[in-house]
Write a structure and sequence with these properties.
Blueprint lengths: L3 H4 L3 E5 L5 H13 L4 E5 L1 H11 L8 H9 L8 E3 L18 E7 L1 H8 L6 H11 L3 E6 L6 H12 L3 E2 L13 H16 L15 H4 L30
Helix pairs in contact: 2-8, 5-6, 5-7
């Protein structure tokens, strides 16, 4: 009989340095709420973005406390493992390590390019490359606008390789009246792509105006210390560090 560790098949979640840490937070929360195991990889640039957008420092040596603070969640009952982005010998770097698949959220243009060309410069890119070669589910959530021709070609290459390219593009028909509901719509579409049940948004039923009559969108309410729509805390225009 296999032991518990051998039977574990996590979703790998890679967080790159693009602005959009609330999307990563919402996807992680959705997976953990569903009782699913998660392996987390946070790039070096993503740590700067998380700090900038939320005020939370993410450190390898204190990752569990920092993750709990970022998610506003007690992780005691959750199955989550963190792998440092610089550890190219970590379990997700090998195809023999069983996973359900991977999500890169948000995906910077640098991460998109690195995955598309098989660069594997860090664990996030290597784990995504492994996911593709093993024909597992890979969802890439680019958060950039506008796109250059090079990025569009990289996204097309990922699509052709079998990945799902899911831009962070929220819809308004669920009746969203808060930023978190827009975030939850994108996270819900990611979870849909993974086959994970959720109640993050009101689904389209074919009835016009149903969301307005029904009192707005489903989804969570953002804690006051998460993404705040009334503060300009995004990355400065034109900043595109290696992510």
């Amino acid at each position: 009989m296999r032991d518990e560790a051998a039977a574990r098949r996590p979703w790998v979640v890679g967080v790159s340095g693009a602005s959009g840490s609330p999307y990563a937070r919402a996807v992680l929360t959705g997976l953990l709420d569903a009782g699913l195991p998660v392996d987390l990889v946070v790039s070096r640039a993503a740590r700067l973005t998380i700090l900038d957008e939320t005020g939370v420092a993410f450190r390898d040596g204190h990752w569990k406390d920092d993750l709990a603070g970022w998610l506003h969640r007690d992780l005691a009952g959750d199955d989550v493992v963190h792998w440092p982005a610089g550890d190219l010998a970590a379990a997700p770097s090998s195809g023999s390590y069983p996973t359900r698949g991977m999500v890169v959220v948000p995906a910077s243009t640098a991460a998109v390019a690195g995955i598309a060309v098989g660069l594997s410069k860090d664990l996030l890119q290597r784990a995504a490359d492994v996911t593709l070669k093993e024909r597992r589910v890979l969802v890439v959530v680019p958060r950039e606008t506008p796109y250059t021709r090079a990025t569009l070609e990289h996204l097309l290459s990922l699509h052709d390789a079998g990945a799902t390219v899911l831009p962070a593009s929220p819809a308004f028909y669920p009746g969203a009246d808060a930023v978190q509901q827009l975030v939850d719509f994108v996270a819900g579409k990611v979870l849909d792509s993974l086959g994970v049940e959720h109640d993050l948004f009101r689904r389209w039923t074919g009835e016009l105006g149903a969301a307005r009559r029904g009192g707005g969108s489903a989804g969570r309410t953002a804690p006051s210390s998460s993404f705040a729509p009334d503060r300009h805390r995004g990355s400065p225009a034109g900043r595109d560090p290696e992510r």
